[in-house]
Amino acid sequence: MTFWGAVASALALAAGTTHVLASRREARANRSHPPTGQFVVVNGLRLHAEVTGEGDQTVVLIHGSSGNLRDFTHGLTPVLAERYRVIAVDRPGLGWSDAAPEGELLETQARLIQAVAEHFGARKPIVLGQSYGGAVALCWATLMPDRLSAVVPVSAVTHPWETGLGAYYTLLSSAPGQWAVIPMITAFVPKARVQAEIDKIFEPQPAPEGYADHFGTDFTIRRAPLRMNARQRRQLLWQIEALAERYDEITVPIELVHGDADPIVSPRIHSERLAAQHPEARLTTLPGIGHMPHHVSIPEVVAAIDRAALRAGLHGGKK
């Protein structure tokens, strides 16, 4: 065997081993974190949603990057379900939802999630989006203002930023990252490392007890969701640049919630700018709170939803 033949054989063996180990880990994650809700078929795609509560008004929950609907069901959904009907949705390509053609686009995601909500009879729900999900919610409010009653962006990405994509997502969204690096993450990154990244997302607060197990450390690093998440992040900035120019098309109440200690999405770059820009936008700033107020400041988030409902004039009748 030639030198290059030996190299090719070694690479093929390494790739095969990585594939086997990644597949085994994904199979275990799928068994430990099965679907908790229902599948709705929209445009030939199966989208996963969990519906709870019996309230007269409906709240749709849209999760952030690297996430799934379990991010909400650990703490927020049970509280909201005491007074609202709640629809938590896996964004296309994440959690248990199928990936969509052009699933990197905010508009694609917003329209698909709106169709899921309408499937469950929610013609004009209150829409809460957290982080990246806040951008999806604002896109929904911009493009379809007649198909929601209010929008509640929490720690939301709303405006362009100057720090770029960053090395991690630059690599993972590239061709080598998509087809070589991501399988290695799935196969070899230890749970402790994923837990450490979760802890960073919650800083300066600690992650709630049991959150990582509920959310699923291995479930979050499966290959397909990692690939979709990286592509969505790569395509976000230019879409936000365009979306921010259209916020005047939003005609429903906007109730922003943002921690002033958020190290991931700066309130000064994002929520504060939207609050200053739009006459219907009201900002609740949470002192000392980081990126995850829907876990560590649940009463304040619920209060923002209640204000949104009041401002939207929701006084009975399923919306």
- CATH top level of one domain? Alpha Beta
Low-confidence stretches: none
Going across the biggest sheet, name each strand in turn: 1-2-4-3-5-6-7-8
CATH architecture of one domain: 3-Layer(aba) Sandwich
**Helix/strand/pairing class, anyone?**
alpha/beta
The proportion of residues forming helix, as a percent range, comes to 40-55%
Shape estimate: globular
Number of helices: 15
Provide an overview of this structure.
The chain has an eight-stranded mixed sheet, sandwiched between helices. It is built from 15 helices and eight strands. The chain has a domain at 34-161 and 236-311: Rossmann fold (3-Layer(aba) Sandwich). The chain is an alpha/beta fold and 319 residues long. α1 (3-32) packs across α7, α4 (106-119) packs across α5 (132-143) and α7 (175-188) crosses α11. The N and C termini lie far apart (70 Å). β1 (38-42) and β2 (45-52) form a beta hairpin. Helices cover 48% and strands 14% of the residues. It has helices at 3-32, 70-73, 76-80, 106-119, 132-143, 167-172, 175-188, 191-202, 211-215, 217-220, 223-234, 236-244, 271-277, 293-296, 298-311; strands spanning 38-42, 45-52, 58-62, 85-89, 126-130, 150-154, 254-259, 281-286. The relative contact order is 0.15.
